[in-house]
Amino acid sequence: MIRLLFLFFCVSGVWAQQIDADLLAVKSRMDTVEGFTVDLQLDVDISFINMPTKYATMIYEKGKPTKFDSKDFVMLPKRGLDFSLQQLFEYPFITVDRGQEERDGALYKSVNIIPTDKRADFAIATVLIDTHLERIVETEISTKKNGTYIVVFYYKEPTEILPQQVAVNFEIERIKIPLNYMGKGTTVNKDQMKADGVKTGKIVLTMSNYSIKSNLAK
């Protein structure tokens, strides 16, 4: 019995420690952002949808639902706008170091995030971390109901904590696109939409005029 208890506590200790230190460093840096507002430009790349560029203002406050202000409807991807990655860290998880991956000639650390709580809405996520600048450059999130998202973050300056542009790639079949509410000037080719075959989409968000509230300034 004593040996079994010893083994139990040893195994529990191993699992408890399997949170990647570089990921925790990124999370700690992101946690310094208490809120921000930013102007958004949204462009959609979906074969059967022709939608003009849309504009909106995004208002984020830690711990509260993100708000948007737009004169026209804007189709916004939930995952792509989670700059703080709070959705990935909402419930307990473990991590697995997957080595390094190359993007545009640079090497980044690849880490799997695996939730251990059934309430999490994703099964697994892979994040590419710039360990030197302590920020994430790409995430691939396999959700339980809405397919897989690949989100790429682009930064203008090495010191920036929030991205200047985000590209969200997703599986169209697995999400509900509000075709009747995409705003003025939008047209949909219904024949292409109903055609067989795997369909993917891409949404590009370009940010400007950030106003960031950080607890580092206190």
Structure description:
- With 218 residues, this protein is an alpha+beta fold.
- It has one domain: outer membrane lipoprotein receptor (LolB), chain A, CATH 2.50.20.
- The protein contains 4 helices and 12 strands; from the N terminus they run ααββββαβββββββαβ.
- It has helices spanning 2-16, 21-30, 86-89, 190-194, and strands spanning 33-45, 49-50, 54-61, 67-69, 93-103, 106-115, 122-130, 135-143, 148-154, 165-171, 187-188, 200-214.
- The strands form 2 sheets. The chain has a 10-stranded antiparallel β-sheet. Strands 2-11 form a two-stranded antiparallel sheet.
- The longest helix has 15 residues, at 2-16.
- The chain is globular.
- It starts with a helix and ends with a strand.
Q: Keyphrases for this structure?
A:
4 helices, alpha+beta, 218 residues, 16% helix, two-stranded antiparallel sheet
SSE layout:
Layout lengths: L1 H15 L4 H10 L2 E13 L3 E2 L3 E8 L5 E3 L16 H4 L3 E11 L2 E10 L6 E9 L4 E9 L4 E7 L10 E7 L15 E2 L1 H5 L5 E15 L4
